[in-house]
């Protein structure tokens, strides 16, 4: 599988930091349209130890996080000049889990931009193991500057 964007570049682009990066590399990218990302699951990842000790499965919330991270990458790669110092917030989800993922699986995360605005967007994302879809979601995200977030925090604290 050909990598067009390496893990090091993914790590540089995402606002999350290790151990909360759930994209290993990118195999396909069409500007402002779609992206395909890969996450390899290995049994030595910490979340498998407790989820579940006798029957390890990749937590659904982390499948959702991998879809959200693919949407961030799609947005940042499509508009690098606009995405400088921006914060991404998941504003809404409609997600369906169809099957579990286990250590040794390779997740293929396919994300397509449905609508893009200056303040966010809507994507459709699906996660595949081999030829089986294991999850799908419609994600709505908002993009804001840190300054706006800080102002909202200060306003909120004033009311507490």
TrEMBL record:
It holds the Pfam family FabA. It comes from the Bacteria. It is an enzyme of class 4 (lyase). It comes from Cytobacillus purgationiresistens. InterPro entries: FabA_FabZ, HotDog_dom_sf. The keyword tRNA processing does not apply. One of its GO terms (molecular function) is (3R)-hydroxyacyl-[acyl-carrier-protein] dehydratase activity. Belongs to the thioester dehydratase family. FabZ subfamily. This is 3-hydroxyacyl-[acyl-carrier-protein] dehydratase. The keyword ATP-binding does not apply. Keywords: Lyase. Its EC number is 4.2.1.59.
């Amino acid at each position: 599988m050909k990598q067009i964007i390496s893990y090091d570049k993914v790590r540089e682009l995402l606002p999350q930091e290790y151990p909360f990066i759930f994209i290993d590399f990118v195999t396909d990218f069409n500007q402002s349209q779609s992206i395909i990302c890969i996450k390899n699951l290995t049994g030595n990842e910490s979340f498998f130890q407790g989820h579940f000790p006798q029957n390890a499965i990749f937590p659904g919330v982390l499948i959702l996080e991998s879809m959200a991270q693919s949407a961030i990458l799609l947005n940042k790669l499509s508009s690098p000049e606009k995405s400088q110092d921006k914060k991404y917030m998941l504003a809404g989800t409609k997600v369906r889990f169809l099957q579990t993922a286990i250590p040794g699986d390779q997740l293929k995360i396919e994300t397509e931009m449905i609508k893009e605005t200056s303040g966010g967007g809507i994507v459709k994302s699906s996660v595949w193991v081999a030829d089986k879809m294991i999850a799908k979601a419609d994600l709505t995200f908002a993009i804001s500057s840190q300054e706006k977030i800080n102002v909202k925090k200060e306003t909120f604290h004033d009311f507490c």
